[in-house]
Amino acid sequence: MGKENCTTGTEFILLGFSDAPGLRVFLFLGFLSIYGVTVLGNVGMIAFIQVSPRLHTPMYFFLSHLSLVDFCYSTIIVPKMLANILNEDKTISFLGCAVQFYLFCTCVVTEVILLAVMAYDRFVAICDPLLYMVTMSRNLCVELVSCCYLCGTVCSLIHLCLALKIPSYRSNVISHFFCDLPPLLSLACSDVTVNQLLIYIVATLNETITIMVILTSYLFILLTILRMRSAEGRCKTFSTCASHLTAIVVFHGTILFIFCWPHSGNNNINSDKVVVIAMLNPLIYSLWNKDVKEAHVKVVNSKTFS
Length: 306
Known about the structure:
Layout: E1 11-14, H1 24-51, H2 58-86, E2 91-93, H3 94-127, H4 132-135, H5 138-164, E3 173-174, H6 181-185, H7 193-226, H8 231-260, H9 280-288, H10 290-305
Parallel strand pairs: 1-3
Antiparallel strand pairs: 1-2
Helix pairs in contact: 1-2, 1-9, 2-3, 3-5, 3-7, 3-8, 5-7, 7-8, 8-9
């Protein structure tokens, strides 16, 4: 590609779902409904944890931050996507594109690490229950959550700094519904091998470390459960982990498919249009978690009687 065909990126066009113009209203209402459930589910979960003394434990402290992260990265993407579905003008400024990618990447990396921290929390709670509240002190919980946000910020900042060094692009049309880094790199005129390699290394490293923490934690949890004599105790203990395991499978499965699955060139870029539906986490925890359901019943009953 010659230099005469390359331009400095000042704004981009997000194609999104422009290949289905006849489905605009359907897509808008569908994604608006999903976003509404996402906002209500995550904000509701945060508020519910705050007003329920029964849920003032390290486990639900981490869950409240998981809901916050889910709310943030869905809000970073969906409002602009909804506007682009209805509007003919689908442009986004270079600065807006950079900010959107940076914030989204920060939230995703933060959630990856936060899920591993929650696995460690379950390990301490089940394998050493007598010292759980001592080990998982308030200060340690705050420090662990702060490390999650810090790692997300640093990883995203590295990707952003390298992306900002790209001098020109052969096109300003992004075949995606938001400013993700891989489709943006596919438009670069310069060599972006370092950027692509860094994405693969960082994503794979984060996945490997966090999955090892999760697998190790649940290995010890499984051994502890198998040593329990009571079948009821085993079922109750496993039920406290079921919702977390489901959230891990959904989230990490999506991340592995998008960033760590080898693609041959840029022809498969459309296969990466996978939406991580953040509404799943509050639904998983509210439907499967006994403590959440019991606390919800108590809150509803107290409001009814008052």
